Amino acid sequence: MAGSIDAWGKGKDNKPRAEITEEARPGRRLQFCVHCGSADPAAEAGTMDNRPGVDEINAPAPVQNRDDTSEWRRQTHLEDESLESAPTPPSFHTRSSQASPPRRDPLSPIATQLYIVSHLIFFSLWGNLARLGMQWLTFYPGAPIVTPVLWANVGGSFVMGFLSEDGRLFRQEWGLDNMDPHTREKALEQEKSDPAAAKKAHAKTKKTIPLYIGLATGFCGSFTSFSSFMRDVFLALSNNLPTPLNHPYSAVPSFTSTIHRSGGYSFMALLAVIVYTVALSLAALNVGAHFALALDRFTPTLPFRLIRKFVDPLVVVLAWGCWLGAIFLSIWPPDRPSGPSSRGSWTNEVWRGEVLFALVFAPVGCLLRYYASLKLNPITASFPLGTFAVNVFGCAVEAMCYSVQHVPINSTAGALVGGGRVSCQVLQGVMDGFCGTTTTVSTWVSELQSLRRRHAYVYGMASVVAGLCLMVIIMGSVRWTVGWSTPACVTMRTSL
């Protein structure tokens, strides 16, 4: 077998072959890594150029072996995908259609960037709302898990797994429906003869589509939050993790009403939050991929012309309009004294602290994460530096805002906690909006799933340790010295 496979992974017939990555041993399966020709879909489908640094859209699909009865187990890694991000020869689809003239001009770089930014803004707003809504729904009396951001992280990872494995939604963007009948027939025949290459070509194509980038990077990345995860880890360590009232007592729980416990219990609580968050998020990523495979024959295909001619321009209007609407609502909230949902006085106004300020800051964090990943992730394939940087940076900002929100600003006797109601609401908006969308768990677990085992453990442990250390240094220095007070505004954790 070694003689039939050369150093470039090709056989005697000059076709791609599976490159052996593990020696054959008695009674043990061989592990293969399929290296197929990659496409240049931007030239064929008129979409943007490939984005190697954004791992929400560039990571391999969670399910490498779509057929449970297959004799060989195939596994690709994010390191391999990084090597393939360089310009490569065209795939069989491109080669089959080279004889026919192009049917449409590619989008201009300015229009492409406008569509990408608009999709990121639009879906970051929806992802942020979904996370806040999931936290409100799952923080109830008697809840078995009192870290509600867990379910947002699970939901975002599930959607990420579905999008990564799906091969139907963006099938028309592949270009098959836009070929002439003869070329399309030849391409379909080659697709059937080499399904692995066809799957990889389609995966590279959909990762260039603004709508897919908006869903994977914008929605899933904003639906999940690494900074909130790390905040809950520290609160479990410091015995300040709020719990909904679940016993018939008249006292309302607060940050000072938790029962004292030993340090050993706090350490076990810290491990519990880390273990069940990482485990459930990884499981959700794989379940989402399995769900995509189960619904493959029932999943519709989005029409290419509808997306390109109607949806993309519409999202530009909706994205910027919704963002401006959130800014205007923050200036004139509906529950202000003279508003349509007035509650009497400004002291009863809660919209800005619970949702509006978060929507104002959400697109900023999402765009920062996207462009940071675009620039930093390609530096090293074995350690996604961009995702690591934004997650650590978001944890630092989260810790600072949380500490300022829970202490008096000055030392006078009448000093307001967090600087008063409006300042408290702005800080809450920065934590829920900016930090929540700057950091991500869905991309993080997707990278953990895609990296080689040793690299995945190093990257995962480095992310958790760095985030927790920042929380201990920033939040712990306040918690264990001057102490925390109840914030001056209504938040999800103080309104139940």
From TrEMBL:
It catalyses: fluoride(in) = fluoride(out). GO terms for molecular function: fluoride transmembrane transporter activity. Keywords: Cell membrane, Membrane, Transmembrane, Transmembrane helix. Residues 91-100 have a biased composition (Polar residues). GO terms for cellular component: plasma membrane. Pfam families: CRCB (PF02537). The keyword Transport does not apply. It is a multi-pass membrane protein. The chain crosses the membrane at residues 107-127, 139-163, 209-230, 267-293, 314-333, 353-372, 456-478. Residues 1-26, 41-105 are annotated as: Disordered. It is found in: Cell membrane. Residues 9-26, 65-80 have a biased composition (Basic and acidic residues). Its main location: membrane. Fluoride channel required for the rapid expulsion of cytoplasmic fluoride. Belongs to the fluoride channel Fluc/FEX (TC 1.A.43) family. This is Chromosome condensation protein. It comes from Aureobasidium pullulans (Black yeast).
